[in-house]
Automatic annotation (TrEMBL):
One matching Pfam family: Multi_Drug_Res
Cell location: Cell membrane
Classification via PANTHER family: GUANIDINIUM EXPORTER, SMR FAMILY PROTON-DEPENDENT DRUG EFFLUX TRANSPORTER SUGE
Record-linked SUPFAM superfamilies: Multidrug resistance efflux transporter EmrE (SSF103481)
Keywords noted in UniProt: Cell membrane, Membrane, Transmembrane, Transmembrane helix, Transport
Protein name (Swiss-Prot/TrEMBL): Guanidinium exporter
TM ranges: 27-47, 59-78, 84-102
Length: 105
């Protein structure tokens, strides 16, 4: 169950990072509220997951999901550059996440 909580926390990290961008420096109310609510939920689920997962593994996977999700959302939704080096770097992050999951007891 801890891995499910961690995955949801990572997805919520993608949500809050996207809406933080859309809030224009917290100057728009609705995106700012979505940012804060998804941040709180993400941190809460991360904390629950850390009850059963090692700190380093949980935090690295959480930030990795957030980084990859934000990168994909930036490319697909915001039209950010999808360069070879960005994609290769993202694949390295994905490999690290998989390695941490596979090596976790």
């Amino acid at each position: 169950m801890a891995w499910i909580y961690l995955a949801i926390a990572g997805l919520l990290e993608v949500v809050w990072s996207f809406y933080m961008k859309k809030s224009e420096g917290f100057s728009l109310l609705v995106p700012s509220i979505i940012t804060l609510i998804s941040m709180i939920a993400s941190f809460a689920l991360l904390a629950i997951a850390m009850r059963n997962l090692p700190l380093g593994t949980a935090y690295a996977v959480w930030t990795g999901i957030g980084a990859l999700g934000a990168l994909v959302l930036g490319i697909v939704v915001l039209g950010e550059a999808a360069t070879f080096s960005r994609i290769m770097s993202a694949l390295l992050i994905l490999a690290g996440i998989a390695g941490l999951k596979l090596s976790s007891s």
